[in-house]
Write a sequence for this structure.
């Protein structure tokens, strides 16, 4: 230990003696380590971190893949984690594998407290929710089973810690006070512990509400007693000593019996479909990190970014290793003196490694600042509602541990080979007076050139990835989504959360449409129940007049409830038929407009206008909806997703309508009338919050946020690597010129001209760049194939991208070579021949 302390003190003195070298090295390492620390922090928070509850390894998530008949509400593509509330109660009360089984469902809420009404995020939870998770209250108390016994009889809430701090200024006096939630006066029982944000990363509920209050929280939809309404997510805590496999085996007969009991409710289904329904399995997934919803979208991008920053760090390490080789050459006499006085080689290697690790630790400390600034910048850039926007930024133990470990490993990685080469000296040569200027061995020169080749190759891989992501983003930004997004502004209201029934809500929507249309700066206004480009979709199976589906054929269609003049407002052309009008009401004939692709599939060669359809399937379905129009295909839930079979119906004919997203076409810049739109809503109901007010162009940009993030970060990492590679190539060529000064002087004394020397030096540098480029192209062809799912409209092996990046990198390399080459042309032969 005493020897190590001496090495640390000596290493620190040596670094202080060379402040320029130390500062440059620390900056290079800080950029590489900081980028890795920032991306690791995101990956840890999204993919790796366990829920902040007791024994998270005991938690499991219930899943049941297979066909369901009825209404499915799910944030997963196949709805396999959605259950009916009656099924949850049966599983909760009759299983022997769990110490507890909880249910939850996320909902938007309208909060009113002390005269101020705001839209917020809520979560309906079972009475045992906090008990099963082991989450405690910071003040007051959480729910118990007694708070969740009788439907509609428990008007109580628990505030999240974040909501308590933001909205109530951490006032401990809020306990037992009342607040209005979706028009219901409710008592605040307590506040959750700090750090607890529920069971789903990216969702941060403001309030927790007993699940038996669902009918009051979603006024137009109960669902507590419907076996064919699948909306509840279920998590369980395994009994101590019970594995997931054992629990699945124990639950199998119980679940089979519950499905057989529900089979009579599956009316109109074939015997085969009933068998498939009854044979569904109950699966238990790892729940230690909560529900993996955000992770489904973020896993591949985060892993991709992680290997990209790993390549950046590799380039930085190669750069620093090259600097250390040059510094080792300059210290040959010092090292030879120490060896002649009895210092062993491995003792000197250890000393040099200590210096490398000190450099790396300093880079790691500065890298922490880089990481925190990067994360803070990302958090400000992330649109609200994208999941990552709620992730805290700060220094925690996993972040510090990763940063420290990475710094130590990096110091060893870039310091070991230079240390070994620096201590392999010829004492006689090194101790001569000219030893200071002696050229190092050819192996050191080859190694430095090899590092440059590796830097160029890795940089090309990063730049190719950045180029592919940039082209993908360009394709998405210039994609025809089927609507005219310019001068179109959108906002949403949810009157059902303020106690409106569907009849009052429809009346409010109609009045607001009339007021908006009458504004001088507005050329059209309409609404839709499902907002466009928000990732939300509503679907159903359907039947069409004159079309007989094949056995097992997928008859699912997407649907939306829209207002009068919707297609004119959105700029979606009608290919035949008519728009919805104010005469399409709940009392009139049910009508629909279908998409062009749906018309081609189900009405090939026939005019669909005037024909009938229905939502649902089977022989008993009644075709009671008249098709009155065909609209050109357009995109809805996501910009990336192709236009699908789509059915539009009037929201006035939806008996459960309670919220609407309005679209307003303006004759001036949309941002200028945002305040006017809020004013028009407040004139009808001053207590009705307006949310998601933005232009549709901004909505489209937000919907491709992941693509923008990948393009921006990959471009930053690629350019950073290119800068480091350029610096590395410049350093090698400058070092080469310095070592060959005598040779260059002789050449010029024998008649060589400046352009000959320029060609000599630049040619050597370009050879290294071309070799690195070729190796990089081969590596990129192998690695970028893994990016296929993240790209849009561009192949991972796009030849144009590869060619442009290769030319760009060679140009950067040429620029890096020119400075030392021009210096070489100014060598004075007389001075050079005296050079030692």
């Amino acid at each position: 230990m005493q020897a190590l302390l001496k090495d640390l003190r000596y290493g620190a003195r040596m670094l202080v003696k060379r402040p320029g070298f130390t500062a440059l090295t620390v900056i290079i390492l800080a950029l590489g380590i900081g980028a890795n620390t920032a991306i690791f922090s995101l990956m840890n928070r999204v993919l790796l971190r366990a829920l902040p509850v007791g024994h998270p390894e005991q938690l499991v998530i219930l899943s049941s893949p297979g066909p369901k008949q009825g209404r499915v509400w799910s944030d997963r593509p196949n709805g396999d984690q959605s259950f009916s509330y009656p099924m949850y109660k049966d599983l909760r009360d009759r299983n022997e594998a769990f110490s507890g089984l909880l249910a939850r469902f996320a909902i938007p809420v309208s909060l009113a407290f002390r005269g101020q009404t705001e839209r917020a995020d809520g979560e309906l939870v079972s009475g045992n929710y906090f008990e099963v998770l082991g989450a405690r209250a910071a003040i007051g108390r959480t729910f118990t089973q007694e708070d969740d016994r009788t439907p509609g009889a428990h008007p109580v809430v628990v505030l999240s810690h974040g909501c308590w701090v933001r909205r109530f200024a951490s006032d401990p006096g809020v306990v037992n006070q009342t607040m209005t939630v979706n028009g219901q006066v409710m008592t605040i029982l307590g506040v959750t512990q700090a750090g607890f944000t529920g069971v789903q990363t990216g969702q941060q509920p403001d309030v927790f509400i007993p699940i038996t209050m669902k009918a009051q929280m979603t006024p137009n939809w109960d669902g507590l007693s419907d076996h064919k309404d699948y909306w509840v997510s279920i998590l369980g805590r395994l009994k101590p000593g019970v594995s997931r496999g054992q629990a699945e085996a124990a639950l199998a007969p119980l679940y089979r019996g519950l499905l057989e009991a529900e089979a009579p409710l599956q009316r109109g289904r074939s015997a085969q479909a009933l068998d498939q329904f009854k044979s569904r399995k109950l699966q238990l997934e790892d729940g230690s990190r909560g529900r993996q919803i955000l992770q489904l979208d973020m896993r591949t991008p985060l892993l991709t970014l992680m290997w990209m920053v790993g390549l950046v760090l590799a380039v930085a390490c190669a750069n620093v290793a090259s600097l250390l080789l040059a510094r080792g050459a300059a210290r040959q006499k010092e090292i030879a003196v120490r060896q002649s006085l009895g210092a062993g080689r491995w003792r000197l290697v250890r000393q040099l490694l200590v210096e490398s690790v000190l450099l790396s630790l300093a880079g790691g400390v500065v890298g922490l600042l880089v990481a925190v600034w990067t994360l803070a910048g990302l958090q400000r850039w992330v649109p609200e509602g994208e999941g990552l926007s709620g992730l805290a930024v700060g220094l925690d133990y996993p972040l510090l541990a990763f940063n420290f470990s990475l710094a130590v490993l990096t110091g060893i990685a870039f310091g070991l080979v230079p240390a070994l080469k620096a201590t392999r000296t010829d004492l006689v040569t090194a101790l001569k007076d000219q030893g200071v200027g002696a050229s190092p061995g050819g192996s050191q020169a080859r190694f430095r050139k090899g590092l440059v080749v590796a830097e160029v190759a890795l940089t090309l891989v990063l730049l190719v990835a950045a180029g592919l992501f940039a082209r993908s983003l360009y394709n998405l930004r210039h994609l025809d989504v089927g609507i005219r997004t310019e001068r179109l502004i959108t906002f949403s209201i949810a009157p059902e959360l303020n106690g409106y029934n569907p009849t009052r809500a429809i009346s409010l929507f109609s009045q607001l449409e009339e007021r908006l249309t009458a504004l001088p700066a507005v050329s059209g206004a309409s609404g839709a129940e499902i907002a466009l480009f928000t990732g939300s979709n509503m679907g159903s199976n359907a039947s069409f007049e004159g079309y007989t589906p094949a056995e097992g054929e997928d008859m699912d269609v997407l649907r939306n409830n829209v207002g009068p003049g919707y297609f004119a407002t959105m700029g979606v052309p009608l290919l035949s038929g008519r728009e919805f009008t104010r005469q399409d009401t709940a009392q009139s004939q049910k009508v629909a407009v279908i998409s062009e692709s749906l018309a081609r599939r189900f009405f090939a060669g026939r005019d669909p206008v005037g024909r009938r359809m229905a939502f649902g399937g089977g022989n008993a379905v009644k075709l009671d909806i008249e098709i009155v129009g065909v609209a050109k295909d357009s995109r809805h839930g996501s910009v990336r997703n192709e236009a699908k079979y789509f059915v539009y119906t009037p929201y006035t004919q939806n008996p459960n309508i309670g919220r609407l997203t309005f679209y307003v076409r303006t004759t001036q810049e949309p941002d200028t009338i945002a305040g006017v739109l809020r004013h028009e809503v407040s004139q009808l109901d001053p207590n009705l919050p307006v949310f998601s007010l933005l232009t549709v162009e901004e909505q489209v940009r937000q919907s491709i946020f992941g693509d923008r993030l990948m393009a921006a970060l990959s471009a930053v990492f690629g350019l950073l690597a290119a800068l480091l590679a350029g610096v590395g190539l410049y350093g090698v060529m400058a070092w080469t010129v310095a070592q060959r000064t005598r040779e260059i002087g002789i050449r010029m004394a024998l008649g060589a001209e400046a352009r000959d020397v320029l060609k000599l030096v630049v040619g050597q540098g370009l050879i290294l760049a071309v070799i690195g480029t070729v190796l990089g192209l081969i590596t990129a062809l192998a690695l970028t194939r893994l990016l296929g799912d993240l790209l849009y409209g561009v192949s991972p092996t796009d030849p144009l991208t590869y060619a442009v990046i290769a030319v760009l990198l060679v140009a950067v390399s040429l620029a890096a070579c020119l400075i030392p080459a021009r210096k070489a042309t100014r060598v004075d032969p007389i001075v050079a021949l005296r050079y030692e």
Q: What stands out?
A: The longest strand covers residues 98-113.
